[in-house]
Amino acid sequence: MNNKDESILGLIGNTPLVKARSLVDNPNVELYFKLEGQNPGGSVKDRPAYNMIKSALERGDISSKTKIIEATSGNTGIALAMIAGMFKLDIELVMPENSTIERVQTMRAYGAKVTLTDADGGIEGSRDYAEAKMKKEGMYMINQFSNDDNWKAHYKTTGPEIWNDTHKKITHFVSSMGTTGTIMGTSTYLKEKSRDIRIVGVQPTDNSRIPGIRKWPEAYLPKIFKPEKVDRVLEVSEEDAKKMSQRLAREEGIFAGMSSGGAAAAAVRLCNELEKGVVVSIVCDRGDRYLSSDLFQ
């Protein structure tokens, strides 16, 4: 057991860290992947979803009578649906209509109401819809983009796990940036342990669409994001993210989504630049979320 909770919630966190076998040519650099798809809900988002709901319940911000709403591009929604179901909470999840059917059906399987917004509006349109409905109907919004319990989940769990599992030898941490909760919380923890650890964020190049990674317009920039906690930002193209997702599956046996491929592509690029180091890259979720897309075709 990972903690005192013997339900499925006790399986959140303590995910494996595995070493890359073939992707890195530099003999002086070790690359490790943190397999967040091993969480019970299938992604890194189980951590913040659990912390955001549990903390809101403990503070009395929500109760079994509260109607909850949240905009999501997918993985957070699945995690929230699973955990809301465990706590018998009423939740509506809003996402763009071009989200993969696997994600929509998984949320509904966990008992959530799913509302699809116009694809052209993207996740920003979903956020606008959820906010308008929250104000009109008095619903409670989780608001992962400005909720400190998002990044604190990674401060409490992801950061310590990586620090301990690399035997305090990590030199670089690489993470895709969406809500930025993963990189903010993990950076905060690791920087407390060593100011020398470099934190590398990953964003898409202009005109690239990579689910889970965003270059936000200023008006939608997550309020939890603190640029000083990221030492460097690397950009990856949609094509490079796809190719690396395919390589992860074929060469490393790691079946993961496109945002994980994007982070891995940036991590491999970084490894080839370094004289020496121990690099950890987040693998956000599992590849079976993308089988109806063209990712593995």
What does this structure look like?
The chain has 297 residues and is of the alpha/beta class. Helices cover 38% and strands 18% of the residues. It has 8 helices and 10 strands. It has helices at residues 46-59, 75-86, 101-109, 122-137, 148-165, 181-193, 238-252, 258-273, and strands spanning 17-19, 29-35, 67-71, 90-96, 113-117, 140-141, 172-176, 198-204, 232-236, 277-283. The strands form 2 sheets. A 6-stranded mixed sheet has the order 1-2-10-7-8-9. Strand 4, helix 3 (101-109) and strand 5 (113-117) form a beta-alpha-beta unit. The longest helix is centred in the middle third of the chain and has 18 residues, at 148-165. It catalyses: O-acetyl-L-serine + hydrogen sulfide = L-cysteine + acetate. It is an enzyme of class 2 (transferase). Keywords: Amino-acid biosynthesis, Cysteine biosynthesis, Pyridoxal phosphate, Transferase. Its cofactor is pyridoxal 5'-phosphate.
Ranges where pLDDT stays below 50 over 5 or more residues in a row are none
Distance between the termini: 38 Å
Counting H and I runs of at least 4 residues, what is the number of helices? 8
The H-and-E topology, N to C, reads as EEHEHEHEHEHEHEEHHE
Widest sheet: strand ordering: 1-2-10-7-8-9
* Rg, alpha carbons: 18 Å
Mean pLDDT: 95
The number of E-state strands comes to 10
Estimated structural class: alpha/beta
EC number: 2.5.1.47
Keywords: Amino-acid biosynthesis, Cysteine biosynthesis, Pyridoxal phosphate, Transferase
Cofactor: pyridoxal 5'-phosphate
InterPro entries: Cys_synth, Cys_Synth/Cystath_Beta-Synth, CysM, P-phosphate_BS, TrpB-like_PALP, TrpB-like_PALP_sf
